[in-house]
Design goal:
Helix content is about 40%, strand content about 25%. The protein is of the alpha+beta class and about 280 residues long. The protein has a domain of about 160 residues: Rod shape-determining protein MreC, domain 1 (Thrombin, subunit H). The radius of gyration is 50 Å and the shape is elongated.
Length: about 280
């Protein structure tokens, strides 16, 4: 009996302790809720929570700011790249227009010189345009868009507003071939404009002439102008040919070695004039 009584007392004490602990815990929770939600004052509990949450919020805010900065920089980079591409495109368009304007100005200047020559020469001429070129060294020639139906015949001289270009050596109904004066197979009678000394101008295949058969006793200087002599009826007298660029007096031989820069830039030929002249066909 005594043992059963003791067991009942121990069970009652255990139950009482459990109830007391549970009640105390519930009371503490209620007090905490009242403190937090009741008076809404910044108390010790708030401070504890703030100290725990503050660093986390700071880290999250830092990450958020970093992401925002990266996003802003990325958007700015895309904007700058698009602006760069737009400006580059505009620059290319401006360059294209500038080149086109330069080409138009240059073409207008060449056509003006052709017109001036045509009006001042008092000779019948036929305007022509180059449509093809022969790049071979020995037989330098171009094809023009005028032929026998336009009055172009073999042997007619061809010029620009700057000077002589060559002569027609073959002609079909609608097209003709012009042997350029710089071709190695070309030879033209010329004069030094100042001294009137006569020589033979030969092509070199490049944008350069050789003036031959000028005696060493002749006074020839760099800068002297060379013009057509007009002998044989090939070219009219006095057409510009070029300017002396180099004079060499070798110990051997009778003649000077003279280089002449053409008055015409054969690399940029486009529009030409064929001078209508009665002359023998050259072979």
């Amino acid at each position: 009996m005594k043992k059963n009584t003791r067991r009942q007392r121990k069970g009652s004490i255990t139950t009482f302790r459990f109830v007391l602990f549970t009640g105390t815990a519930i009371t503490f929770v209620l007090i905490l809720l009242i403190v937090i939600l009741g008076d809404q004052q910044f108390g010790p509990v708030h401070k504890v929570i703030l100290e725990g949450v503050g660093p986390l919020q700071k880290t999250m805010a830092s990450i958020s700011n970093s992401l925002h900065s990266v996003k802003k920089n990325y958007i700015d980079l895309l904007t700058v790249r698009e602006e760069k591409e737009r400006l580059w495109q505009e620059l290319q368009e401006c360059r294209t227009k500038a080149y086109a304007n330069r080409g138009a100005v240059a073409l207008n200047a060449r056509l003006r010189k052709l017109l001036d020559f045509k009006e001042s020469s008092n000779q019948p001429t036929i305007t022509a345009q180059i449509i093809g070129k022969d790049p071979s060294l020995w037989f330098r020639s171009v094809i023009i868009d005028r032929g026998s139906s336009d009055g172009v015949r073999k042997g007619m001289p061809v010029v620009t507003g700057e000077g002589i270009v060559g002569q027609v050596y073959a002609s079909s109904t609608d097209y003709s071939k012009v042997l350029l004066a710089i071709a190695p197979s070309s030879a033209i009678d010329v004069l030094l404009q100042g001294s009137r000394i006569r020589g033979i101008l030969k092509g070199t295949g490049k944008n350069l002439y050789q003036l031959e058969y000028i005696l060493k006793t002749a006074e020839v200087f760099v800068g002297d102008r060379v013009v057509t002599a007009g002998y044989g009826g090939m070219f009219p007298t006095g057409l510009p040919v070029g300017i002396v660029s180099k004079v060499t007096r070798n110990r051997r031989g009778m003649f000077l070695e003279i280089e002449v820069v053409p008055a015409v830039d054969f690399r940029t030929l486009e529009n030409l004039l064929v001078i209508e002249r009665e002359k023998k066909n050259f072979e």
